[in-house]
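> example.struct
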């Protein structure tokens, strides 16, 4: 029941009995280094593939770059204070590889490490649990020049970098995510080329995916050896994939896309093998000759937690000869070997990314991972939505984003009630930021950022979320 002494900021919470989350549920918000930090050439930081990509004409909307972004590098203490005001229990951030190990090899850059030390200390000082992601897409440019993720050596370089960060921060950070969304790094970065480094070769994408997972496994082994108390995990972006009809061709299309989007990573990381149907689908693209004996044992090194980023569902149908494929991450070459599968839109409400809003898909995803793959604790490490916002009289009212969070938190609660060991939820994102190829044109934040003045304004969704955290729950509908 809502507490009349402190009414919720937004009326949505006012009806029905409370949906309470388990004690200790980890309520958080997430960001990533390149999306918020700015200070791209300060403190010894050198370029990553995202600096190069965003500075290349035609790669991002309006040529936007992360040079300044939210200027978080200079405003970090204020941003942590804002997190504390919202009552966040945890903050998921990423470390910029080229800030702490310029060039991607060799000695650590103390100035870079000091920034994260200060961030972590600031968080701990406010009682906020730091959740550190090692790789949120910013590969040091020299490692790309040496072959990037399609090259096996990059996996070893990543493990060295992980060790260096663990040496510096392992005494004060408990939760470690190796990779954020390796599907995007591999298939958007090296397949469709809509993300950095902007290469387009299906075989490279498949090799990149493997070496990302190898790097993950090597990093887990290194961290496990040196920081036995650490809680180690990976974050995968997962989608329910639904056939548009019961027709055999549609069902097969769904099997293919599920293989590429979900099982390409879930099966090796949590089961130690690539699915046979997936390698068969990819036969024209890759012979998997890059997979060496022992790789899958490394890749499936035991974890403590599994992170899931959930945004939407894919609905797919059998190819129709001559049909036009859709753009961006549905573009054909991010589905090597299955380029002609059609992505169907159902006419349900979408966000400003054109992603269909599908909260039940979160329940399906969580239940599937728990049922088919693991008993480990699960965390939603990202979930959120872009909508167009307006600042009116210094306020930002964002009912659509609030409703998206509300629906997905109800889904998260339903999954817990059904027995899924979901232990936490991170809203994407704490604040508006550089949305990759979309630059600053898509706003995912609970906090509005004016990119000229860098003024932050908590939107109504942020005030609502603060109330959810305070109550550890929300009202049933
Ligand atoms: C995820 C990314 C994150 C952000 C959201 C909208 O794929 O991990 O950085 O771009 O999408």
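> example.seq
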């Amino acid at each position: 029941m809502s507490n009349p002494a402190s009414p919720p900021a937004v009326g949505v919470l006012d009806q029905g009995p409370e949906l309470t989350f388990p004690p200790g549920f980890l309520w958080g918000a997430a960001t990533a280094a390149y999306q918020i930090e700015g200070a791209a050439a300060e403190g010894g930081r050198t370029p990553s593939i995202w600096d190069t990509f965003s500075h290349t004409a035609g790669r991002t909307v309006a040529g936007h770059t992360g040079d300044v972004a939210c200027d978080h590098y200079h405003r970090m203490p204020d941003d942590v204070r804002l997190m504390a005001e919202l009552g966040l229990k945890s903050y998921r951030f990423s470390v910029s590889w080229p800030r702490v190990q310029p060039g991607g090899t060799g000695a650590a850059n103390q100035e870079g490490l000091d920034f994260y030390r200060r961030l972590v200390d600031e968080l701990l000082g406010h009682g906020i649990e730091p959740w550190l992601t090692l790789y949120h897409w910013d590969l040091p440019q020299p490692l790309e020049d040496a072959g990037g993720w399609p090259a096996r050596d990059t996996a070893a370089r990543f493990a060295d970098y992980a060790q260096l960060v663990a040496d510096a921060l392992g005494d004060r950070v408990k939760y470690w995510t190796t990779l954020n969304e390796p599907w995007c790094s591999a298939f958007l970065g090296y397949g469709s080329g809509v993300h950095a480094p902007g290469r387009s070769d299906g075989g490279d994408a498949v090799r990149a995916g493997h070496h990302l997972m190898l790097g993950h496994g090597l990093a887990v082994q290194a961290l496990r050896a040196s920081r036995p108390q650490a809680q180690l995990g990976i974050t995968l972006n997962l989608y329910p994939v639904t056939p548009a009809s019961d027709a055999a061709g549609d069902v097969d299309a769904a099997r293919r896309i599920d293989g590429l989007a979900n099982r390409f990573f879930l099966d090796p990381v949590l089961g130690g093998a690539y699915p046979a149907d997936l390698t068969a689908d990819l036969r024209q693209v890759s012979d998997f000759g890059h997979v060496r004996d022992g790789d899958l044992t490394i890749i499936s090194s035991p974890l403590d937690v599994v992170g899931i980023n959930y945004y939407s569902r894919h609905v797919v149908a059998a190819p129709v000869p001559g049909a036009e494929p859709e753009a961006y991450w549905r573009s054909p070459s991010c589905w090597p070997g299955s380029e002609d599968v059609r992505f169907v839109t159902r006419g349900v409400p979408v966000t400003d990314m054109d992603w269909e809003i599908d909260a039940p898909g979160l329940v399906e995803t969580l239940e599937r991972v728990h049922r088919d793959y693991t008993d480990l604790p699960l965390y939603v490490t990202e979930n959120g939505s872009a909508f167009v916002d307006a600042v009116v009289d210094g306020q930002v009212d964002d009912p659509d984003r609030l409703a998206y969070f509300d629906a997905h938190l109800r889904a998260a609660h339903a999954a817990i009630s059904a027995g899924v060991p979901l232990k936490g939820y991170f809203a994407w994102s704490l604040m508006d930021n550089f949305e990759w190829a979309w630059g600053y044109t898509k706003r995912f934040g609970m906090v509005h950022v004016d990119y000229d003045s860098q003024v932050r304004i908590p939107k109504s969704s942020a005030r609502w979320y603060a109330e959810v955290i305070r109550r550890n729950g929300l009202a049933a509908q």
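> remarks
The chain has one domain: 19-248+303-313+346-474.
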